[in-house]
Amino acid sequence: MIITRTPFRISFFGGGTDYPDWYRENGGAVLATTIDKYCYVSCRKLPPFFDHKHRIVYSYIENVNNNDEIKHPVVKELLNWFNIMEGLEIHHDGDLPARSGIGSSSSFTVGLLNALHGMHGSMASKNELAKTAIHIEQDLIGENVGSQDQVSAAYGGFNKIKFISNDEITVTPVMIPLQRFEELHNHLMLFFTGVSRNASEIAQSKIRNIKNRKIELNQMYKMVDESIFILQNMSEPIETFGKLLDKSWHYKRELSDLVSSTEIDEIYTTAKTAGALGGKILGAGGGGFILFFAPPNKHKTICKKLSKLIYVPFNFEYTGSQVVFYNPNDVFFNKNVIN
Q1: Judging by DSSP bridges, how do beta strands 188-192 and 289-293 pair with one another?
Q2: Which terminus of the chain is more exposed, N or C, with fewer CB under 10 A?
Q3: CA geometry: angle 108, 281, 278, nearest 5 deg
């Protein structure tokens, strides 16, 4: 058996510029961090004593006899990608709910990809994990997703991720004084709205609207470096970071009518009235998790005002996708791995 642990992520600035339709013409960048909430994927060879060949357990349970019967698109594509003919049992568990804006889908893709490499007795680089996950989701499955989630899940850490027009991606850890990291962390609040949404549908609406939102996307792109400057310069008040988040949120709302809703706007307004300086809905928008930036002495008031939401404490994470359990007696060692 092999078990991988892959982190979820929070994106602060630049979201939207990580869609290929945008960065292949204009370039893109995001400031994002992974957090200590994870997706766990376990894989093992399935003994040949059952009526089914593969067993896949997530929010549903699939017992199938061949790859073509698999309904989970990522599992199906990755088993075909690795040309896996042997029976497998795959389990997925997550610390946070799926379809909630914290990159859970890509964390699963990266985590399963990492596990299947391990099942073949190999270890993929972080770059290979990210690039392959992007290819699987965007090209083979045809999902309307950006490219930042896969990179954060694979690499981990607090990074500036840059997307270049030739599809190259650079990951640069953001060096910040420890005191500033603690100051930033102490100002952040994460809430689950309880509103589920179809991220692909929202993303598709953004992509269709990209050519009409060049001003907003260019401004959001510039905010990546502006936010890093704020964090790296102790003379800059940390509150400036929160106010920039607020400004970015208003730009993001212009990317699609589906990004926000009356309910989300009310949550945002309530938090600001209670003392938050800024924030944003995470991921494509429409629901899921919402992040706020607020002075620590305002946190209790905000929690009280948003008592109907689930408050989720978190810490930053720096490892990315990891194999946390490995049994060498339960791997395939099939050298004909990749197409």
Answers
A1: antiparallel
A2: C
A3: 135
pLDDT, residue 195, reads 72
Q: Residue 108 is which amino acid?
A: F
Strand pairing category for 28-45 and 316-317: antiparallel
Q: How far apart are CA 80 and CA 54, in angstroms?
A: 13
Token pair, residue 276, equals 């938050």
Distance separating alpha carbons of residues 250 and 254, to the nearest angstrom: 7
Mean pLDDT confidence for 24-43: 97
pLDDT recorded at residue 204: 62
Cα→Cα distances 140→73, 91, 165, Å: 9, 22, 20
Q: Is residue 339 within 8 Å of 78, Cβ to Cβ?
A: no
Q: Rounded to an integer, what distance in angstroms lies between the CA atom of residue 62 and that of residue 269?
A: 43
Residue 92 has phi, psi (to 5 degrees) of -125, 135
Q: Return the closest-CA partner of residue 193 out of 282, 89, 275, 69.
A: 282
Residue 70: which pLDDT band, with cuts at 50, 70 and 90?
very high
**61 - beta bridge partners?**
57
Name the helix (H) or strand (E) containing 191.
strand 188-192
The angle subtended at Cα 172 by Cα 166 and Cα 176, nearest 5°, is 155
Phi, psi of 295 (to 5 degrees): -55, 140
Longest dimension (CA), the chain: 66
